[in-house]
Amino acid sequence: MPDPLSQTFxxxxxxxxxxxxxxxxxxxRTVSQLVEGRGMSQPAxxxxxxxxxQAGLIERGREAxxxxxxxxxxxxxxxxxxxxxxxxxxxxxFGRMDAFLAGMAAPRDKGGTP
Length: 114
Description:
The protein has helices spanning 4-12, 15-24, 31-35, 42-54, 77-109, and strands spanning 58-60, 69-71. The protein is mainly α.
């Protein structure tokens, strides 16, 4: 079984699953509501929902005959944390590169020779 971060990114890699998440961000939906207007069968949507649930991105309840789906509140925390760490590392690296390049350009700006 892949690690949770890999599962999250794998689930997000599919445009249909991202569209489902976007719809669920507007509020809870049943499987039938998610099938409407997608041109996909109920079993196909259910497979996408299973992937999203296994990745921890959605939760499924049980109310009488329906299984409403909703966004999992903490579902994107691991991915968001990883992206934030990468962004901080990149900004630090680019900052050091900018400083290095500025130091190389300084003698030329003062009329010095390279």
